[in-house]
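To: structure desk
From: M.T.
Subject: fold request, one chain
Message: Could you run this one when you get a chance? Sequence is below, nothing fancy, just the single chain.
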Amino acid sequence: MMLLAARIVQNEIQTPAFLGESWGFWCQFLVILATGIGALITAYSAMKTANTAVTTVDTAIKTLEINEKRARRQATINLVLSENQDEKFRDVKEKYANLRVQENGFTILVCEQPTCEDRKKKIEESKEILITILNQYEFIAAAIFEDSLDEDLYKRMKKSVLIRDWEALEGFVLELRKQEKRYQLFCETERLALKWKNEKSE
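Reply: Done. Structure tokens follow.
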């Protein structure tokens, strides 16, 4: 009787349970399949997380670029407003405009060696006015080349004025460079004026 029961159990274990395979085989297969599906889900989830991270970084970079552009524009507007509201600088600009009309050229202010004290004093005052104007342009040009100011915005407002002033002051600057042996003097102003001058009219 015991022998018969053992044979029946043995036959049941060896007998294929489903599609010609034993239950043990199918249990192993299901475990492997579940593991594979789990790995795929994990990989897909990681890919989605990576894509989300990339999108977040892209959005952050774009936001930073927009904010930087706004900051440059605001700084440019503030600079122009400050120039117009600063009484001392307005006075310098007015004196410079008068000099531009009166003088045949500014180069003489560097070359002339006056003997008369009054003429000497007038030349020094005129040179001081020109250098103040040039210093302001040099600061602006350097800031534009460093991307601290919005070049397009400033150009729309001041292109013709800057080019006109550089053309009027170029001889003065070249002579000043020679005399003082400072050959990079006001080079950023020159660079900006020439850049804008050589661009096609917009």
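Reply (cont.): The chain has a mean pLDDT of 82. Let me know if you need anything else for the meeting.
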